[in-house]
Amino acid sequence: MGSKEQPHLVLKGDCLKQLKELVDSDIKGQVHLTFLDPPFNQDKDYDYHNDSMQKKDYWDWMQEVCQLAYDLSAKGAAIYFM
């Protein structure tokens, strides 16, 4: 991922948009660590996310995020939630 000189990639933004772009790229299946700090639907003000979703909408969204992170992951990768 990244370049030979800088093999790590840190992203900030709309995670679904960025994860979908990554899944369509050549790094699918090569990510060894994903660190997620998602909003927890507690009605807080975030720049990139509505944090007061209906419960079903929130869990559908989280399921999609987790599936995309899994799809990007290499065998034996770790996915951490903060």
Task: Give a structural overview.
By secondary structure, the protein is α+β, with helices and mostly antiparallel strands. 33% of the residues lie in helices and 18% in strands. The chain has one domain. Strands 1-2 form a two-stranded parallel ribbon. Helix 1 (15-23) runs parallel beside helix 2. The longest helix has 18 residues, at 55-72.
Shape: elongated
What fraction, in percent, of the residue positions are helical? 25-40%
Radius of gyration based on Cα positions = 14 Å
- Total of helices: 2
Kindly report the average pLDDT value. Answer: 85
Q: In whole angstroms, how far apart are the ends?
A: 23 Å
By helix and strand content, what is the structural category?
A: alpha+beta
Largest sheet: 2 strands, parallel
Number of strands: 2
* Low-confidence runs of at least 5 consecutive residues: none
Biggest β-sheet: strands ordered side by side in the sheet:
1-2
Strand composition percent: 15-25%
Work out the count of structural domains.
Answer: 1
List the secondary-structure elements in sequence, H or E. Answer: HEHE
Give me a quick take on this structure:
The chain has helices spanning 15-23, 55-72; strands spanning 31-36, 73-81. It is α+β, with helices and mostly antiparallel strands and 82 residues long.
What's the layout of helices and strands?
Blueprint: H1 15-23, E1 31-36, H2 55-72, E2 73-81
Parallel strand pairs: 1-2
Helix pairs in contact: 1-2
What key attributes describe this structure?
82 residues; alpha+beta; two-stranded parallel ribbon; 33% helix
